[in-house]
Amino acid sequence: MKFTKNEIKSINEYERNEFNPELLGSIKDARGKKLDYIIVVSHGRRDMHDSGYPYIKILGRNEAGFFNLGWHDHFLCQVPVNIDSLGKNVYRVMPWSSKTPWVVSHSFISVSTFEIGKPSYYPTHDPNVVELS
After folding, report:
1. Is this structure's pTM higher than 0.85?
2. Which domain holds residue 57?
3. 122 φ, ψ to 5°?
4. What pLDDT does 67 receive?
5. How many domains does the chain have?
């Protein structure tokens, strides 16, 4: 996953210069991990998704570091979130409440939709975690 100098700078200004794109954990590494928050980076209009919208890059963050959560064209929030801008086209999406941990699905793959939480009527809904899928 490539990042511009400005994207790296924007992330590092809020991450104590700990972000290094060369050290990103893989999607496979992220499965089953608890995350503190995600970072969403708009890729710009150069390469567009089939939907006609720019791709977004999503990173997961926890105490162990950063994880590549892939390329998407949108994300859904099934739970309340707090969204902060870290710079141009760079956003941090955090849980509104810290009571329920965010956990990457054990079967996570990078598809068009990135989903934060599952509706309660889903058969795989677990009220003890907010599943990232």
Report:
1. yes
2. 5-132
3. -70, 140
4. 98
5. 1
